[in-house]
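SEQUENCE-TO-STRUCTURE ENTRY
===========================

Subject: a protein chain together with a token-level encoding of how that chain folds.

Sequence line: the amino acid chain in single-letter code, read from start to end.

Question of interest: how does this chain fold, as expressed in backbone structure tokens?
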Amino acid sequence: MTIRDILFPMISYPTATAADSIERAVTLAARLGAHIVGVTFELDIRSPVGLYAHPVHIRGILAAERKKRLQCTRSHCHLR
């Protein structure tokens, strides 16, 4: 049975999938003569109030995590 379609999930948080990993997946798909589809999602980070976060610092924590999430997600869109 020939593989014709490959679904490649790309992680965007806490770190983005490395560009070389994406290139290797594309190379593998080309060698197999298959189509490859990359899928990534933008995560919605919820408030981390609890044992590990002080309520006074929540706004800064959420802003930093949103910035990190957006940068990781957008990094997938700018690949060749």
In short: The radius of gyration is 17 Å.
